[in-house]
Design goal:
Elements: H1 2-17, E1 22-24, H2 32-50, H3 64-85, E2 88-99, E3 107-116, E4 124-130, E5 135-141
Antiparallel strand pairs: 1-2, 2-3, 3-4, 4-5
Helix pairs in contact: 2-3
Length: 149
Amino acid sequence: MKKLLALGFVLSFILVFCQADYKKIETEKLDTKKVLLSRSFIQSYLEKCLNKDYSASPGFKFSGEFEKFFNNKLREVCESNRQNYGNITLENLNSAYRNKTSIFGKQELYIFDAKTEKDNSIRYLSVWISADDTIDGMVITGYKPFKKR
C-alpha cells in the first residue's frame, strides 16, 4: 500500500510540473489509430478487472516500466479501484495532448470521460501512447492530468 501511495505521489508531482510540455491536439488532427488503441486498451483493462482476469494483455505493446507495473500490480490496482470506485464506465474521448519536449520521443495523452459507481469526483481515464504505439501509462483521475494550452 505504501508503494502505491508513493507511486501516486510521484505521478502527481510529475503531472503537476510537466503540464507546460503538453499542447492540445485539434480534433481534425487526431490520429484515429491511436484513439482506437487507447480506447481498446482502457476497455480491455476494465474488462480484465471486471472479470478478475489478471493475466498478461496480449495485443498491446507496453513500455518496460509500465509492463512491469501492469503485470505485477494489476490485481492490486483492480481490487483497489473496485473497492474505491465500484464499476467504472468508459465514455467518449474528451481531449488529446502531445508532449512537445519529451526526450523519449513524441508522446500523446488521450483523455476519456469516465463514470464510476461510487465516486462522482472521478471523471477521466487517461492513457499515454508513444510515437511507436507503445502504451506508457494510464491513470484514473477527477481532473485532466495536464492543463490545456
